[in-house]
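Support request, please re-run this one:
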Amino acid sequence: MDKIPQEYEIPLYLFHNGTNYETYRFLGCHKGTKDGNDGYYFRVWAAKARAVSLVGDFNEWNDNATPMQQLEKSEVWEAFVPGLKTFDTYKFSIVGCDGKRRCKADPYGTHMELKPQTGSKIFDIDGYKWKDEKWQKERQTKDVYNCPMNIYEVHLNSWKSCDDGVYYSYTKFAKTIIPYLKDMGYTHIEFMPLAEFPFDGSWGYQGIGYYAPTSRFGTPHEFMAMIDLFHQAGISVILDWVPAHFPRDEAGLFEFDGGASYEYADPKKRDHLAWGTRVFDYGRGEVKSFLISNALYWIEQYHIDGLRVDAVASMLYLDYDRRDGEWTPNVYGGHENLEAVQFLRDLNTAVFSRCPTALMIAEESTAWPMVTKPVTDGGLGFNFKWNMGWMNDMLKYMSYDPIDRAFHHDMLTFSFFYAFSENFVLPISHDEVVHGKASLVNKMYGGDVDKKFEQCKLFNAYMMAHPGKKLMFMGTEFAQFREWDYENGLEWFLVDEYENHRNYHAFSKRLNRFYLDHPQFWQKDFDWSGFSWIANDDFRQSIIIFRRFDADANEVIVLCNFVPVERKSYCFGVPYKGKYTEVFNSASPDGAPMTNGTVKSEDVPMHGFEQSVCIDIPPFACLYFEVKKDGEKKKTSAKKAEHSSDKKKSDKETEKE
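Re-run finished. Output below.
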């Protein structure tokens, strides 16, 4: 064993302790000098390995040509090789504790071969000249909770097919999609995983190169250039990140040194049985350093604005997707994975201590409490969580025959009771439109195509008005009929050739722009003072009416009719004496107001208010109204406005405030 150099002692100590959050600066491949020769140092953690050597193009993949030396008492192996150059390919040839030799990609490698090859490539990510200084400066003062967040989720391979049949490059993709995102009114783009993965059919969720942007679309610097272009255009970038599991690929983390290394040794914790993958050992310091360093690597080195953390529920529960006898309770007799809970808290603490404006979004599908509450308060420390309960309830509700919706009215209203318990993102993601699940428009009830379009527009307008940030998967904005297929591009021809899809696309654009222009829909997403019911109990007619407020107490009244029946002269209570103007109507071809114009309130008490209005409601329609109070000169502040649905004040009382 080689003696540990003094400068290695602190990085190694922190690495083994689980608190080296820049482990990628030590392990992996790095430029250096030894005995006056320029070259590269290679370091790899292989705790139980009997022997490790470096193989690659430079030594004709000879297992015996470049042996690595184990640093004393460190479980880390090192070699220095002079004369190498960028893009040279290499792997670690490891004789495991079981005596078998395995050829492994570098877990900290920054670049990899194009699939199906799995070798790591030498690439120094330093040296890219960023041009997003303005973005970074503005980001430091941005209140992510009270800003618009309308996320467009994409699978880079299949957003559009290139004319020549090859993948878009990172930069070509950015230059192509940015004008579209700006025109459509999206604020964020979320990528399905782009860390290197060998199998296209995994969509990136079974990766082997956690530190390497996939080479399908270019080099790491080209990946940086793509992020740079998005930032220069004012678009935030979110990346799907997968700390819940990894695949059994021979070149990956699977049994890296011949036994349990990155994964749990306990067979009752080790495997995701349904997915055929391995679970990270969250209690092991070296694994924690690997994962937390990786999260910060994407945020700090690649300027990613946030991470959507995949499959959090599978991390939190020891019995996730397991039957009785297939899991062991924790020390308190419960089913919580205490090590994973602590890992998530440490992860979020580390990220926010260094990047306070980052987005850490949990895909968490259970009722685990305080997911988006601070670690200091006992929470997991994320700042956003996908609202999977809302998504499941609403998609099921929209699949019911409208005749039966009256009997399921609670599915429509229940989400409002917990809407402010977490900082929610409302997701219609790729998982909901894949093979076997139907596209969004085809999830709507019935066989009548026009009725499906009407219901889908109603659903989207309702979703945009519901408290919480928004996410829609690519293709839903023009109501693609076919389910998403990762091997083929979206059906863009539908917009050009069919009026329904063309109108739906225009509707989505108008809806997105309405959202951007109206802080009532995003400024107080996580506060009861940003929402109030007018009527939530008209289950017989499947109608709900509610109010959304901004910080200055400006409001939009939202009315949704979930049945294909027109309601003439439908009356409901309103908070102020004044004029109420229809400003959005999902029943029109593109969402433009078309039914009511401006109506004046009458002195008829209803729904706890002194005033009411009567309007016409088209079938399957969501309507937005803005109000101008009689004699209004100045809006009251949000702090002074009473928004409680339990105590409605008269117009006179409100004006006195």
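Residues 499-517 form the longest helix (19 residues). The chain has a mean pLDDT of 94.
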